[in-house]
Amino acid sequence: MAAPSSARLLKLALPLISEHGFTRVALSRSVLHLPTPHPEPLSDAAVSALFGHGNVARKTLFNAWLEGGIESMQGSTTSASVKEALHARLAYNEPVLEHLPEAFALLAAPESGLPPIDSVPALKHAARVADQACYISGDPSNRLNWYTKRAALMGIYSAAELHQLNSPKTAHSFLDTLLSTSATIDSSVEEVKLFSSYILRSWAGIVRSRDIL
Amino acid sequence: MKPSHFPLKNLRRGYSTLPSVLPSAIYTDPIRAHEPAISETPELLQIHRRQLDRALRVDQAGEIAANYIYMGQMAILSRDRALKPLIQEMWDQEKKHLAVMDKLQAQHRVRPTVLSEVAKVAGFGLGAVTALMGKEAAMACTEAVETVIGEHYDDQLAELESMPSEHPSLPLLKDVIREFRDDELEHLDIAVEHDAQRAPAHALLSSVVGAGCKVAIELCKRI
């Protein structure tokens, strides 16, 4: 029988996170859930060989869990709104909420000494969630709007996720509030742009009628 | 005199091709919007994904710039009875190219370039300035830009050959790029037929515009 791949074991370890956290123990116990289970968990040397030494293995498990989070945003339908996608992603956090602060801290700890905190992985996580939400909803934004839309959703999702770590019960309503505030700001900006264009056109007409240009 | 560095005769597309059988037509047909070839992106190795990303990013930026070059030329030369319909026709083709590129960018989840506004301003400026220099200079600008774009699309086709083609979107992408390359070479032909090479300081103008295009291509691939 072929040895199970590390990718397959990572998938089997994901449901164990709620009980064991993002730990090497969850990885070592993944073999107990194979179709033909192993008699005992993997040794520490085997976990290191498959997933890396020390915290590298834990980061591998966390990254696999984050990848699962991206897949969970699709839901059962072929398309969803941005709101549904972000709510689905927040719901994915719920079973493992108590383990997330440590996992995010692990992700922010740099491989070497400087800088003291590496914020890039957290930004990448928020950027992937925002991009996936836009893709699932069929967002047509292009050019610079592509960036502004995603930047706004990154901010909204990051704020909602941080809120969820402190107050899980109000996280979904907080997300709804942020999304509706963002929609209000967007429509206000569009109205200001439209009104400004009317003013510019009227001034252009006045300038032309006075033969200044 | 034809540009000797690019084999035009083997790449000219017959005028008998009907618009409805062009590869890009599938992207503008709403009935076929959910076919996998135009709605899905394949699983690719990281190196191929990066190549596809950069290729579509720069292609989209190039089509934006081309649109604005013709817009700039039209702003100055709209009163020229001979050139106006030609520039309008070439511009309409570039508008179609841009619409298809926008769909390709969304389909393959490619990050668009941050330099799109710069491409607009630079394109309009280039078109307007060369049009102010005269009709021949405007045509020389078109000739230089379309030469660089034709070579660039050819390089992309060679790069796409190395990618796996099981997923239907990649052979379609090659066909679309081939079609667009042939369109750009037709524009080059039109420019040459309309006295592009009689422009004042033609060699200098062509080399400056060509070099500028190559720098822009490298920047848009990365930023």
UniProtKB/TrEMBL annotation, chain A:
InterPro entries reported in the protein's UniProt record: COQ9_C, Ubiq_biosynth_COQ9
UniProt pathway annotation: Cofactor biosynthesis; ubiquinone biosynthesis
Source superkingdom: Eukaryota
Key words of the record: Lipid-binding, Mitochondrion, Transit peptide, Ubiquinone, Ubiquinone biosynthesis
GO biological processes: ubiquinone biosynthetic process
Subcellular location: Mitochondrion
An annotated GO cellular component: mitochondrial inner membrane
Pfam families documented for this protein: COQ9 (PF08511)
Residue stretches making up the COQ9 C-terminal domain: 122-171
Keyword Transit peptide among UniProt keywords: yes
Keyword Mitochondrion: yes
A GO MF label: lipid binding
Function comment: Membrane-associated protein that warps the membrane surface to access and bind aromatic isoprenes with high specificity, including ubiquinone (CoQ) isoprene intermediates and presents them directly to Coq7, therefore facilitating the Coq7-mediated hydroxylase step. Participates in the biosynthesis of coenzyme Q, also named ubiquinone, an essential lipid-soluble electron transporter for aerobic cellular respiration.
Family affiliation: Belongs to the COQ9 family.
Listed name of the protein: Ubiquinone biosynthesis protein
Origin species: Favolaschia claudopus
UniProtKB/TrEMBL annotation, chain B:
GO biological process: ubiquinone biosynthetic process
Main location: mitochondrion
Membrane topology of this protein: Peripheral membrane protein
Compartment annotation: Mitochondrion inner membrane
Pathway stated in the Swiss-Prot or TrEMBL entry: Cofactor biosynthesis; ubiquinone biosynthesis
Cofactor: Fe cation
GO cellular component: extrinsic component of mitochondrial inner membrane
Enzymatic reactions: a 5-methoxy-2-methyl-3-(all-trans-polyprenyl)benzene-1,4-diol + AH2 + O2 = a 3-demethylubiquinol + A + H2O
The name this protein goes by in its record: 5-demethoxyubiquinone hydroxylase, mitochondrial
Organism: Favolaschia claudopus
